[in-house]
Write a structure and sequence with these properties.
Largest sheet: 7 strands, antiparallel
Number of helices: 11
Strand order of the largest sheet: 11-10-9-8-7-12-13
Distance between the termini: 27 Å
Radius of gyration: 19 Å
Order of helices and strands: HHHHEHEEEEHEHEEEEEHEEHHH
Strand content: 15-25%
């Protein structure tokens, strides 16, 4: 295993966990805003007021007796996603992509019966996947149909784009691609691929899996060097708008590109991970310090998006 010294990491501008927690999360994120981003249902309602679109909400299950209506609601649907409102790290999310007689087909290809989905809803309500194990709410959303230009790179699951936003400025981005290891989910901790994106153009830079450099997707076999995200400037502006919607100074914004509806917000994260630096092959600190040093901040989301494209593009 290759080893790199902390001193060299510091010279490369790599943000470590302690500095992230103390200098950025604790300093720029008001505790009062956490419940908003730690609850996917509250997030959907809040960002809608700022022109940020999200997958269509199909059902909210708050009480055990409401689970009986789930099967009726899902009867005519080809696909949908079940999510715990307070879930973290992708835990508890079940994506259904189709039907096979009395069975539902997960994004990974596994068949699951309706009673199993209902038990899953019960577990969500009991807080099995929520932060601190508190009672939760289950939300059922319309299935996102990924744009074909991105879907081909991912294994079964929908690829998403994580953008770190600091003081309303989208400073770094990566594309996350599902794999067999990640069970069709775009979650790096579970084995998804992270592809660093040039903030100026939306084009791919580097790729990693399990924090190791790769050049080909492990399952699709496709090269990861020439990926180009459509409507990139619009996605940066959407991420920037989440600052006004939440007031959080440091956060992760997770977006998808739907084949029919374009960019959609999946969720927000008040404690975004640091693997995005590995995927980009560069550290966050220089960009964060650049924003901190601005004497005249840019007031509109579009202005902030334009600034980072010019300031950090191909850096």
């Amino acid at each position: 295993m290759d080893w790199i010294s902390p001193r060299r990491l510091n010279r490369l501008g790599m943000l470590n966990m302690n500095r992230r927690n103390v200098d950025y999360i604790a300093r720029y994120n008001e505790r009062s805003s956490y419940p908003l981003v730690d609850n996917k249902l509250k997030t959907k309602l809040a960002v809608a007021e700022y022109g940020v679109t999200t997958p269509r909400l199909l059902q909210v299950v708050r009480q055990q007796h409401e689970i009986s209506h789930f099967r009726e609601m899902a009867e005519g649907l080809g696909g949908f996603a079940i999510k715990p409102a307070k879930g973290a790290g992708g835990k508890g999310i079940t994506v259904i992509s189709g039907r096979d007689d009395d069975y539902y087909i997960k994004a990974s290809g596994t068949r699951i019966a309706a009673p199993d989905l209902e038990r899953h809803l019960t577990n969500i309500l009991a807080g099995l996947y929520s932060l601190a194990g508190s009672p939760d709410v289950a939300i059922v959303e319309n299935l996102v149909e990924s744009a074909p230009s991105l879907a081909k790179f991912s294994y079964q699951g929908v690829p998403d784009i994580r953008i770190v936003v600091f003081q309303g400025y989208p400073v770094m981005a990566m594309l996350r691609l599902a794999t067999k290891d990640s069970d069709g989910k775009a979650n790096l901790h579970q084995g998804a691929v992270g592809v660093g994106l040039d903030i100026g153009t939306g084009r791919s830079l580097n790729a990693v899996q399990f924090n190791r450099p790769i050049t080909l997707h492990p399952d699709t076999g496709l090269a990861l060097e020439n990926i180009d995200i459509e409507a990139w400037e619009d996605m940066l502006e959407m991420a920037a708008r989440c600052y006004e919607a939440t007031g959080l100074g440091y956060m992760g914004v997770d977006l998808v590109v739907d084949a029919n509806e374009g960019p959609l917000l999946l969720e927000l994260n008040a404690r975004p991970g640091l693997a995005i630096q590995m995927a980009n092959g560069r550290g966050l600190l220089p960009r964060l310090r650049n924003i901190e040093s601005l004497k005249r901040p840019h007031f509109t989301p579009r202005e902030r998006a334009n600034y980072v494209m010019d300031a950090f593009g191909a850096l």
